[in-house]
């Protein structure tokens, strides 16, 4: 599932489309369009060029040289691919933008849970304003404001995009394992030292994951162990525990992350 590092990877893909004229817009499956029709998408984009794209949380925004901003949310299975025009389309390519004569930007998505919106500049700003600070730019002050007064479980708070934008299920578990904080702790109960460790874990995990364009399943990471038949802690080899926390499949080490 695309989280901040994956979307950052798609931002790099989209940068490859900068300055190229969108010659045609082909909607192969309108099930990924949100708040815009296929005709409206074509009207807004054809003949335009993409400017520098930006990301906030899991949203990727592609301003054009007109008033329109193309906004992507990748849901569970979305991806953005820059292909040569002569490469055959993938069965899950839902929207194809022809760029110049030889390139295509393809929005690929199996499950179509989210997709593409076409916003004007002001509504694109409002879209981002509803989100919390981007997890990659999180400051200690941001985190303090997010944690205090919240009785929800820390994992639920990290997943709440209006609190912190960009974290998904894998990142939240990885960060809490690094911070040695149990995922079911109440956010407001975290000590200052635990808050410091959550922030340090967020920065460290994101630095590596953004470079990789995904949450890497390294053996030294919780993410690299969670899909094993008998997952154990990379730090202390204790068998990991697993249950739903905040409605999501959650792994933690009962030794490193003691129960509240
Ligand atoms: Zn452990």
Automatic annotation (TrEMBL):
A GO molecular function held by the record: zinc ion binding
InterPro entries, per database record: DNA_glyclase_Znf_dom_DNA_BS (IPR015887), FPG_cat (IPR012319), FPG_N (IPR035937), H2TH_FPG (IPR015886), Ribosomal_uS13-like_H2TH (IPR010979), Znf_DNA_glyclase/AP_lyase (IPR000214), Znf_FPG/IleRS (IPR010663)
Keyword Glycoprotein on entry: no
Keyword Zinc: yes
UniProt keyword annotations, A-Z: DNA damage, DNA repair, DNA-binding, Glycosidase, Hydrolase, Lyase, Metal-binding, Multifunctional enzyme, Zinc, Zinc-finger
Residue intervals of the FPG-type domain: 228-258
Catalytic activity, as annotated: 2'-deoxyribonucleotide-(2'-deoxyribose 5'-phosphate)-2'-deoxyribonucleotide-DNA = a 3'-end 2'-deoxyribonucleotide-(2,3-dehydro-2,3-deoxyribose 5'-phosphate)-DNA + a 5'-end 5'-phospho-2'-deoxyribonucleoside-DNA + H(+); Hydrolysis of DNA containing ring-opened 7-methylguanine residues, releasing 2,6-diamino-4-hydroxy-5-(N-methyl)formamidopyrimidine
Protein family membership: Belongs to the FPG family.
Name of the protein: DNA-formamidopyrimidine glycosylase family protein
Organism: Streptantibioticus silvisoli
Organism placement in taxonomy: Bacteria, Bacillati, Actinomycetota, Actinomycetes, Kitasatosporales
């Amino acid at each position: 599932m695309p989280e901040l590092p994956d979307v950052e990877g798609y931002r790099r893909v989209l940068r490859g489309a900068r300055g190229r004229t969108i010659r045609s817009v082909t909607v192969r499956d309108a099930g990924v369009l949100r708040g815009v029709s296929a005709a409206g998408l074509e009207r807004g984009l054809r003949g335009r060029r993409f400017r520098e794209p930006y990301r906030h949380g899991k949203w990727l925004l592609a301003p054009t040289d007109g008033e329109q901003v193309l906004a992507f949310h990748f849901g569970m299975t979305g991806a953005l691919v820059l292909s040569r025009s002569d490469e055959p389309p993938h069965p899950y390519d839902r929207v194809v933008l022809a760029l110049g004569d030889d390139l295509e930007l393809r929005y690929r998505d199996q499950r179509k849970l989210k997709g593409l919106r076409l916003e004007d500049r002001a509504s694109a700003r409002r879209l981002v304003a509803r989100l919390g600070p981007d997890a990659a730019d999180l400051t200690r002050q941001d985190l303090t404001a997010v944690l205090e007064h919240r009785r929800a479980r820390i994992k639920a708070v990290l997943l709440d995009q209006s609190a912190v934008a960009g974290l998904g299920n894998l990142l939240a578990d990885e960060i809490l394992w690094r911070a040695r904080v149990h995922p079911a702790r109440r956010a407001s109960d975290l000590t200052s030292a635990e808050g410091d460790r959550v922030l340090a874990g967020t920065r460290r995990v994101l630095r590596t994951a953004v470079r990789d364009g995904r949450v890497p399943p390294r053996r030294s990471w919780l993410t690299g162990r969670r899909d094993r038949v008998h997952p154990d802690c990379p730090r202390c080899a204790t068998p990991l525990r697993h249950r739903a926390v905040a409605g999501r499949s959650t792994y933690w080490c009962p030794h490193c992350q003691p129960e509240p």
